[in-house]
Amino acid sequence: MNIILLSGGSGKRLWPLSNEVRSKQFIKIFKSEEGYDSMVQRMYHQIQKVDPNASITVAAPKTQVSALHNQLGDKIGISVEPCRRDTFPAIVLATAYLRDVQGISEEDVVVVCPVDPYVDDEYFKALNDLGEIALKGEANLVLMGMEPTYPSEKYGYILTTDNQKVSTVKEFKEKPDKAGAKDYIAQGALWNGGVFAYKLKYVLDKAQEQIEFMDYDDLYAKYEELDKISFDYAVVEKEEKIQVLRFAGRWKDLGTWNTLTEAMEEDTIGNVIMNDTCENTHVINELDVPILCMGMKNVVVSASPEGILVSDKEQSSYIKPFVDKLDNQVMFAEKSWGNYKVLDVSDQSMTIKIVLNKGHYMNYHSHDRRDEIWTVISGEGRTIVDGMEQHISAGDVVTMQAGCRHTIIADTELHVIEIQLGKEISVDDKHKFELER
Amino acid sequence: MNIILLSGGSGKRLWPLSNEVRSKQFIKIFKSEEGYDSMVQRMYHQIQKVDPNASITVAAPKTQVSALHNQLGDKIGISVEPCRRDTFPAIVLATAYLRDVQGISEEDVVVVCPVDPYVDDEYFKALNDLGEIALKGEANLVLMGMEPTYPSEKYGYILTTDNQKVSTVKEFKEKPDKAGAKDYIAQGALWNGGVFAYKLKYVLDKAQEQIEFMDYDDLYAKYEELDKISFDYAVVEKEEKIQVLRFAGRWKDLGTWNTLTEAMEEDTIGNVIMNDTCENTHVINELDVPILCMGMKNVVVSASPEGILVSDKEQSSYIKPFVDKLDNQVMFAEKSWGNYKVLDVSDQSMTIKIVLNKGHYMNYHSHDRRDEIWTVISGEGRTIVDGMEQHISAGDVVTMQAGCRHTIIADTELHVIEIQLGKEISVDDKHKFELER
């Protein structure tokens, strides 16, 4: 089975655990053997369990690449969107990636699905079925239709010609109001969950109608020229031969704190104390200090280095406009080489804790407008500063003036306090270089 | 007017804003011209307003001295308890301090009151009256009796001979149950708020019955030998000539989050957003990152570098046993020279942000079991390391091996990141030295 996982989304609705570089799919809330898994980790492991030979490609914006490598390892295939261009360009690029980078035949089938629904193994078996139906070629596109559990106004609906397990699409309906939703459900309509399968060639041909390109590399280079257009609008609504596979298993969107906490196995994650007068209350604490909750009912509390949310669960779905107003400086991030956390922001300085995983290293880089001072607090490694390599261990201090090129290489897990000093400290003030060795 | 302010108390009921070194009287929650005042600052300013010539002495444990200097300035008179010995020894020591350090006559009167009730100017006028009644010498001790506003089980009661403004004490009653309290109130009883006045000689003579001492210095040296005994038990209950002054003005104990938040002028302090579905909710945020509250009713939220409390207001009075169980490492403190905040605690290292006020300096000290690294992030000053003085400013790094003596002197306000490295990092690992210059 070939799968494209669409990894998009901003982090606002699950603030403060999500941010500009950590969308909701990277929040670790699902209990696993070694701690907690994120949505993307959970889904990745579920696919591997159902089909150990599955070829998985994640279609993701550039900003998510570090987090994906951090959570799924270095070997995961990622089709990187060089800029945001809606779902049609993203799916085309990923499809070209499958053919030209992964070497999959144009006649072979791929299943595309979002990375963030909360599902169980049955869902992945259905994905497999979806692929097999697409392979038969009776239709150009095979959708998965979710059996509705309530008259939701959140989803588009699919009207079918009959009520068979596999049937033909009669019509698509945009997100209706409640009455409309009830009416559709009475007609046997299904939710459109954005899950579908097709032969590579089909989508690549569709793309050629819009823009001429040779291969993946060529398309990547031209990506910015592509129109911002959704796959639904560009392909689905224009296609006449579409089949749909009914699916009645677990399929949940964990897009708000209210729904996310329903999927938690335990009431608390992290350093939390709740007294016994709390009811239906969930607390997720990513800080080192304790959270004490007393007498809370139907409440979600969540804390990260970026802020603290204390909300009635129902109210939590109205969070977005408030988060929009916040000055959302990224205070923590998972990188391909480890992670960092901002400890202090002062006028003209910033103090950061950096953890480098064993065997990893940062980009070799410099800054124009800030000096930096590294103090190693644990581990062993090497720094390269303006080409000079030096062994480092706990207690060592390395100072770097603005303009000087530098990197750290972790020979063991390495913990470093970085102090940045300058009038304009910004993540944009960075030049990357090839390592001279 | 001579006043002894008794500053005691642990910080548990108002966690996380109070801790071992910051009792509730140091929490800044009262809006003032320049920001927020603490209880002790509010009271100090109120006394100075009512009587600009008042001589104010604070009786406080050693652990509070830095915070008192930080909040009230270097000139405040402090009678420091070298160890905890209940209220009788503390009051005797402070009385000796008044005579021997402040030079007040033994025939003069002092008013003793706790530092933490929430009162207005009327209260201080009553303190003045209390002193004048004591000066007349009709009784050895003059108490202030608070007119009860409800049958409280929290206070001791004073039964009087009549209902005059000033009357004679007939009997003291320990904290009663509710029925008992109602009964006492029906008899015209008053709350005992621990506010009283006496001539210095009276208490100093009482003390001599327990332990012989020459003067303040001598008593200070012998302090540890004194019995742990309360002033009520040692003096009040044995004294036959006690008068009481009725007081009906504002007098509130702000000992729980529920009562403390009632005294707040605004619903929030610090970086807080509340949506309009919140009701009767107070949020105090001492962290730099925002707290977002949605749909909370009758709730108090409070956050500091030591933790986060989210509690129903009624429930907040049951906080103590939960706080007892926490590993209460002090994560921030006000010192006489400025303040510090713990930014990161790792295995074998700790990172701290230090702010030194202009013109101040730390003790000259060394550590046996940790190295330290200072990085100046703003300001100008000097370090002295093993006797060697050096000018420092932003970007300078100073490293100190275990055993080496060191201090920083702030020529302007100075901000420093201190990284501690060692196997056993402890506040007890400290030797102080005289500065060699």
Helix content of chain A: 10-25%
Quaternary structure state of the chains depicted: homodimer
Strand order of the largest sheet of chain A: 20-21-22-29-24-27
Task: Output mean pLDDT of chain A.
Answer: 93
The N- to C-terminal Cα distance of chain A equals 41 Å
Helical segment tally of chain A? 10
Round the Cα radius of gyration of chain A to an integer and report it: 24 Å
Q: Helix/strand/pairing class of chain A, anyone?
A: alpha+beta
> Which percent band covers the strand fraction of chain A?
35-45%
* Total DSSP E strands of chain A: 30
Largest interface: chains, residues each: A-B, 59 and 59 residues
Task: Give the CA-based shape of chain A.
Answer: globular
* Major β-sheet profile of chain A: 6 strands, antiparallel
Q: Which residues of chain A sit in consecutive blocks of at least 5 with pLDDT less than 50?
A: none
